């Protein structure tokens, strides 16, 4: 009974590890619909175990197999068939997902190798040339704290690499085993630790070259419209006289409205001038005898004229304005609207009023 319990606990320790699921690694592609052989122990690619890795001098297969072999997850092996798990764009931010069935602390890193030969095993030297940077600029290592089972790393793909078959390597360096550093420091996570590796086949399409081919036609199209618009703007410039004609007609409609507002002052000015000319006629008879009788008018002239003239002067303006309105059309009989577009109702009166003020354009009035 005790033996069965120990075996069960050992199996639990062996089965609880991790795998890279996006892009799907060679060992777990079968779980996500890819036509690849099934590996039911796909979370245990940990270099044959910690003791075996130590025995091999810390070495491990590039895709998690034991260094001494066999290596079924490398080219030529059962699970390495060159099946492309995902296609990316050159220089894009790639999200890589890792599933941990049991966390062991530590950290993760990801590497990329442009290989383009699925029949030849990828080398660790090629993978080490491109340790992928995290998109946030924090470095290359993703720390593991055992609080998450799904780890998503956002990685910056190289801007100078495109390929039909690249290999992405996931490296998980655990940190839950007791060990000692060369300087004598011993702790959980110090010294040699358990490591896991997975490999996934991906493609990276070029993306920076297509915009370059699209730019020349775009620049030509931007220059064509200005060439077409310049003649279109010149045509209206020649038609400007046709638009100026209505602009001159506009005053004809506005003139009556504005001239009516000016009519009262125009009529009052002649009204004041009319009595000024008639003043001699009215004053002549009045000055025959009374003008010689200045002594008699000395006292009344100060009393009576001071009061009477305002009344007489205020009343005459009203009478004179009425007379001015009647007489205004008589004097400028010779001014009338000119024949043409200005020969409209109200223009004769407009010419009569404005020609008095010496504003008598020949295009509008004839006197």
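-> sequence recovered:
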């Amino acid at each position: 009974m005790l033996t069965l319990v120990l075996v069960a606990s050992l199996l639990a320790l062996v089965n609880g590890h991790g795998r890279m699921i996006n892009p799907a690694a060679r060992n777990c592609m079968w779980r996500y619909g890819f036509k690849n052989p099934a590996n039911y122990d796909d979370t245990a690619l940990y270099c044959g175990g910690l003791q075996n890795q130590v025995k091999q001098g810390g070495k491990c297969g590039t895709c998690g197999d034991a260094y001494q072999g066999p290596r079924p997850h490398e080219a030529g092996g059962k699970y390495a068939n060159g099946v492309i798990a995902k296609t990316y764009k050159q220089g894009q931010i790639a999200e890589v997902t890792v599933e941990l069935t049991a966390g062991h602390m530590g950290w993760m890193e990801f590497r990329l190798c442009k290989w383009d030969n699925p029949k030849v095993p990828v080398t660790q030297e090629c993978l080490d040339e491109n340790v992928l940077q995290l998109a946030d600029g924090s470095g290359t290592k993703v720390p593991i704290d055992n609080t998450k089972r799904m780890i998503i790393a956002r990685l910056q793909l190289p801007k100078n690499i495109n390929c039909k078959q690249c290999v992405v390597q996931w490296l998980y360096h655990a940190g839950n085993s007791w060990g000692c550093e060369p300087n004598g420091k011993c702790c959980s996570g110090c010294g040699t630790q358990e490591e896991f590796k997975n490999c996934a086949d991906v493609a990276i399409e070029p993306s920076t070259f297509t915009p370059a081919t699209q730019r020349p036609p775009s620049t030509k199209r931007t220059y064509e419209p200005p060439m077409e618009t310049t003649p279109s703007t010149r045509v209206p410039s020649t038609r400007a006289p046709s638009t100026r004609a209505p602009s001159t007609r506009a005053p004809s409609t506005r003139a009556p409205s504005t001239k009516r507002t000016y009519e009262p002052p125009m009529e009052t000015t002649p009204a004041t001038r009319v009595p000024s000319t008639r003043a001699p006629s009215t004053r002549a008879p009045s000055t025959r005898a009374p003008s010689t009788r200045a002594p008699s008018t000395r006292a009344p002239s100060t009393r009576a004229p001071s009061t009477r003239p305002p009344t007489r002067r205020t009343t005459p303006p009203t009478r004179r304005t009425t007379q001015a309105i009647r007489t205004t059309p008589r004097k400028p009989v010779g001014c009338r609207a000119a024949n043409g577009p200005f020969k409209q109702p109200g223009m004769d009166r407009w010419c009569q009023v404005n020609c008095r003020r010496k504003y008598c354009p020949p295009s509008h009035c004839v006197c």
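Residues 1-16, 210-332 have pLDDT under 50 and may be disordered.
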